[in-house]
Description:
By secondary structure, the protein is α/β, with parallel strands linked by helices. It has helices at about 30-40, 45-65, 85-95, 105-115, 130-135, 145-155, 170-180, 180-185, 200-215, 240-255, 265-270, 335-340, 365-370, and strands at about 1-5, 20, 75-80, 155-160, 190-195, 215-220, 225, 230-235, 260-265, 285-290, 290-295, 310-315, 325-330, 350-355, 355. It folds into 2 domains: about 1-40 and about 275-370, no CATH class; about 45-270, Aldolase class I (TIM Barrel). The strands form 5 sheets. A 5-stranded parallel beta sheet has the order 3-9-8-5-4. A 4-stranded antiparallel beta sheet has the order 2-1-14-15, with no helix packed on it. Strands 6-7 form a two-stranded antiparallel sheet.
Amino acid sequence: xxxxxxxxxxxxxxxxxxxxxxxxxxxxxxxxxxxxxxxxxxxxxxxxxxxxxxxxxxxxxxxxxxxxxxxxxxxxxxxxxxxxxxxxxxxxxxxxxxxxxxxxxxxxxxxxxxxxxxxxxxxxxxxxxxxxxxxxxxxxxxxxxxxxxxxxxxxxxxxxxxxxxxxxxxxxxxxxxxxxxxxxxxxxxxxxxxxxxxxxxxxxxxxxxxxxxxxxxxxxxxxxxxxxxxxxxxxxxxxxxxxxxxxxxxxxxxxxxxxxxxxxxxxxxxxxxxxxxxxxxxxxxxxxxxxxxxxxxxxxxxxxxxxxxxxxxxxxxxxxxxxxxxxxxxxxxxxxxxxxxxxxxxxxxxxxxxxxxxxxxxxxxxxxxxxxxx
Length: 374
């Protein structure tokens, strides 16, 4: 088998070839279709990476419009480990997300990137954070004591505390905003308040308003209000690409800067995708019969969108750098294709040939290829 593929992290428009698989032994003609089931599974990390990048574009847009801080690397945190179908799937999806962001609680993804992608140091980071049981185990009457304990256990740096175990607004107005206010302000760090229930756009805006009333806020250069730097908010319930955009737009309408908030996403990041999300398909496009090459394709009359590509496929960039897919005569070498009159050589590279892997990708390189604006 010879497998050619686009370098990982490359960003392109849909409907282009991402890999080609060619049989190199006529005695094993069936191998290409045998490998379809395995190789088409790249749809999952590719789709997660694509969706994560789309969410990053949204975050960058709202940061540019409403914030003086343009860094969004930690604005979307991966909460998806527990909702994944397996440790292996969490590792694949979580690693794909870390191409675009640096915040994660999915440890399996860090292990994968270290082992297979040469991650130089930690590929992602997290912060101390409470969860409901570490608050509610103190009892309802001692919720404020549980919150105080978080501040005392982590006197510096970022610390996140889930605050909706009973009454999110009482937590913001009374506990954080009055009883624990001096401790919050005295910390050498930032308290991140986490609501985790209710209608996200409404709750987020009301929580920010409560914290602004208790801790103060200032108008930035874009004309939007930013909370006291000692407090921020993270919304980790119900977050997918649509909900994140809705929350940010509601905040903008209420004159709140996107700087006030970060997001956590679990199922919406790693699980609410399938092979049809980005319309992945693996199809036979060429076959050799009695020494003669024959194009293979389908074009169902009931659904033109399911027409498949035909011929020996290569991936090219035009003079403007845009990708397009082309069918060529059966050359296998980049130089041969160029000499044949095609001005744009094949961008697919050989990654596997007859049992030997020919590439080793590194996380830093993949991240550079996937950068917004590239």
